[in-house]
Design a protein that fits this description.
Helices cover about 35% and strands about 20% of the residues. The chain is α+β, with helices and mostly antiparallel strands.
């Protein structure tokens, strides 16, 4: 029997609901950060014990040591991602409907993905294929491509951008809509559908590419490189 897809409830749209969602996601991000730090402490102790206990001629112990050291390095890289997620968990949100599915879907988009204890994503990495509809399209009919799976056509209902500082939701606004969540400001939408909506994304790509092809404002254009940045 074909497994049915489980749909999450769509987050609310009011400021109060958005603030609660931010608090919940920050709690998850903090838990992930603490768990990763504990993993690093445990693996570091294990590496130290292996180096102290076994000699260089013990091939089995040497293999175990190398594996543990590799795990430690991977976990240190994960720590960097967790720190980014904790500092600023997300910058965007997409609400869309795939006509082949029974209901609307919604995802928060951040510089790195965040998953809860059940490995369910609460924030998707901006390089994930579905996230491309955030920075490549205006609201309405659009599509995204998943490598080895084909192209998916969706109706983008909402594209929301957030300003989060010091764990507080400062502002949020929807592309193509006048209503804003805080003091607000006009959002200039690029009709070509190639704008980079948030400076966090611009900064991340600037460090990644070593160039200034993303401009740190709402009018910066996404380079063609984004089409290949998929998980």
């Amino acid at each position: 029997m074909k497994e049915k897809k489980t749909f999450r409830s769509i987050p609310g749209l009011s400021r109060e609901e958005e603030e609660k969602q931010l608090a919940d996601i920050l709690t998850i991000a903090q838990g992930n950060l603490e768990h990763t730090r504990e993993q690093i402490r445990s693996l570091s102790e294990e590496v130290y014990d292996l180096m102290e206990t076994y000699g260089p001629k013990d091939k089995e112990a040497l293999s175990l040591l190398r594996n543990t050291q590799a795990q430690l390095e991977d976990t240190k890289r994960n720590l960097v991602r967790c720190e980014k997620a904790r500092k600023k968990p997300y910058f965007g949100r997409i609400d869309f409907r795939d006509q082949k599915l029974p209901q609307e879907e919604s995802y928060y988009v951040g510089r790195v993905g965040i998953s809860d204890k059940d490995s369910e994503p609460v924030v998707i990495d901006w390089r994930a294929p579905v996230a491309s509809i955030y920075y490549e399209n205006s609201t309405g009919l659009c599509q995204y491509e998943v490598k080895n799976h084909g192209t998916y056509e969706v109706d983008l209902k909402r594209k929301r951008t957030y300003e989060i500082e010091n764990d507080q939701l400062k502002d949020f606004f929807d592309s193509g809509q006048e209503q804003k969540g805080g003091a607000g400001r006009d959002h200039r939408h690029d009709p070509a559908g190639t704008e980079c909506d948030h400076p966090d994304l611009a900064e991340d790509e600037h460090h990644r590419s070593g160039s200034g092809r993303f401009r740190k404002n709402h009018g910066g254009h996404a380079p063609d490189l984004l089409h290949s940045l998929q998980l």
